[in-house]
C-alpha cells in the first residue's frame, strides 16, 4: 500500500514545494503575538467549543457524542454562490447561515422527534426525509443534498455493523489516543478519507476526520472518554475560511496568478495542485504559529508548550474569520464543491 504522509508531514512537504502559496515569517510572528494576548485573556481554550456556541450540545452523554458524529459527517460545503442563494435555517426565532445551518437543522429535527442521533434510524433515512430535516428557510436548499444523503446512510450502516451503532464505541477502542481514533475513522468511514497526490506523493489533509476527533475533545472538555494523551498531534482543519484569515493576517501569501484566479471565481477540483497548496500551506503555517506562540507563552511563564495545540488555534481562527468576514471580503476564498470540507 502506498505510504500517505500524515497531515503534519504533508503540510511541511507541501509548503516546501508550493509555487503559488507561501508562508510569511513576519506574519507568523505577528499572529502568534496577537494570540499570546488572547490566550492570556482566556479568549480561547477547550471550554470555548461549548461555551461560545449555543447550538453545540451542552451535555456530555452518549447522545451528544453521536450528535457530533452526525454533524461532522455532514460538515461540508456550505458556501453560497451569492448572497441571494444562501441557505438559511431558522431555529428558536434566530436565523443561521453556513455551518450553523446544519447545527440548527439538527437541533430542530431532534425537537421535532426525528432520531437523528440514532445510527439505526439515519442509516435507513430516505432522501426525502433528510431533505425535510435539512430544509432551508430561505428558499435556497443546503448544497449537495444527494451527497449528504449518501455519506450519512453509508456511515450509519458502518456504525451499526461494526461499532454497535454508537460512535462512543469508536472512542473506547482507541485507548485515549487522538491518532488511533483518527486512523479508525479514516480506515472505516470512506467519506472521511481526504487525501490527494501532490508532487507524486500521497498526502493526507483529513479536515473532517481531525475536526471530528477535536470536536469530541471539545465536547467532553478533554476528560473521560474525551481525554486524548496526544491531542497536540492533530493539525488545523484545512478548509477555505481559515486560509482566508491567514492571508488577511499576513501569515500566508498568494501569488498574483492565484489571487486573480480566486477573484475570477474559478471553481477548483478536489486534489488540484493549487487547492492542495492552499490547504497544505495553511496546515504548516498554523504549525509555525503554534511553535512561536508556545515560545512566547513559555517566556512569560503563562503556559507550557503542551497546553497549546493547533486545534485551539483553528477554533480561534475559524471564529475570527466568521466575525471579520466583511473586512476580509477583498480576499476571496477558493471555491470547491466536495465532501471533504
How would you summarize what this structure contains?
This is Queuosine 5'-phosphate N-glycosylase/hydrolase. The chain has one domain.
The strands making up the biggest β-sheet line up spatially as 1-6-5
Q: What structural class do you assign from the helix and strand content?
A: mainly alpha
Taking all residues together, what is the mean pLDDT?
Answer: 94
Number of domains: 1
InterPro entries: Q_salvage
Organism: Petromyzon marinus
Function: Catalyzes the hydrolysis of queuosine 5'-phosphate, releasing the nucleobase queuine (q). Is required for salvage of queuine from exogenous queuosine (Q) that is imported and then converted to queuosine 5'-phosphate intracellularly.
Family: Belongs to the QNG1 protein family.
Tell me what the structure shows.
Helices cover about 50% and strands about 5% of the residues. The model has no long low-confidence stretch (mean pLDDT about 95). The chain has 15 helices and 7 strands. Helix 2 packs across helix 14, helix 10 crosses helix 11 (about 205-220) and helix 12 (about 240-250) packs across helix 15. It has about 350 residues and is mostly helical. The chain has one domain (about 5-330). Strand 5 and strand 6 (about 200-205) form a beta hairpin. The strands form 3 sheets. A 3-stranded mixed beta sheet has the order 1-6-5. The chain has a two-stranded antiparallel ribbon with strand order 2-7. It is globular, with a radius of gyration of 19 Å.
